[in-house]
Amino acid sequence: MVKKEMIAMLLAGGQGSRLGILTSKVAKPAVAFGGKYRIIDFPLSNCINSGIDTVGVLTQYQPLRLNTHIGIGIPWDLDRNIGGVTVLPPYEKMQCTEWYTGTANAIFQNIDYMDSYNPEYVLILSGDHIYKMDYEVMLDFHKKNNADVTIAVMPVPWEEANRFGIMITDENKKIIDFEEKPANPRSNLASMGIYIFNWKTLKEALLANADQPNLDFGKHVIPYCRENDRPLYAYEFNGYWKDVGTLNSYWEANMELIDIVPEFNLYEEYWKIYTKSDALPPQYIGANSAIERSIIGEGTEILGKVYNSVIGCGVTIGEGTIVRDSIIMNNTVIGNDCELNKVIIAEDVVVGNHVRMGIGDEAPNETAPHIYNHGICTIGEKSVIPDGVTIGKNVCVGGVTTKEDYPDGVLPSGKTMIKAGE
Fold this sequence. Notes:
By secondary structure, the chain is of the alpha/beta class. The longest helix is centred in the middle third of the chain and has 11 residues, at 217-227. It is built from eight helices and 33 strands.
């Protein structure tokens, strides 16, 4: 029988609803990031850089692009005869067929997959965070403490601690208590949703709690382990870690890549971030163009001016167009003489000539102010924006729009326009 010391289970089924229209047709881990990457590239690269060569990727919501991106795992050196990367969608069973209903339920439904590798340890990861982490160091900490469960934690500002699952530890980092989003936090060590379990302990906890609705690590599995006196330890991580779960945090994380000295460096030799790359020609920069503090993907043609922006691969930016503080994803075409300020444009969008976006005073979004805020103008994938229109801030546009959709040629701040078929 095959025996692996540690395998990873990567939860990548999330819809990412707070990313609004960016995830209407694609799972959050497959959303483009940093010009040429996708969010899932970061945990996958961490795995291979940490010496973990067996990864189960649990997919559910809109998995097509994710599955295509992962393929057989070649970019991450995960195309192995034994192990490698395996995509694990929910599947039909003899009885009790169900979707993955909670993070731990998704793991429970794949006990046979994990058993087939007979691992000592199982690493549980989330597919939607941007960070670099050596899981081998965390495993050494786990072994040194004879832990049954080790939870990666990160110190957060005290005033934000009530937004997280908080671990209370003794001087040896043994977890003595934990609280989910406490009103009066007793610690500022927040769970990162990264766990190492002894496989025997995890299997026992999953089987014991199998009947729980929406079986979850924080609500069911971890409390079970604690009630049964399993040693739980907190592994403190102090590197860069970003949950890109909202449009604003997604925008911020992209913008942090183009700081003069970026806090998060995508290009370190010793800790590479791997991705599936298409063979593309180099960038073409026109004679009258200007680019400052930006990332420009391969195969992109820039005839206008780009400032402080992240531009994906295969993008075209027309003459006389000025792009500022924006994220433009792969294969989008922007016409001539446009002005874009703080815009997130998804993949395969067509923007006409003389279009202005992110213009005017802010107004709260009429349909989802908790999603579309901070002045960002968001355009969904495969959308079409006609010539000569002006679009405000905190706006969401999706679908093929025509001049008739813009009274007086304007979509004011705070509006949502999603055409049928989106």
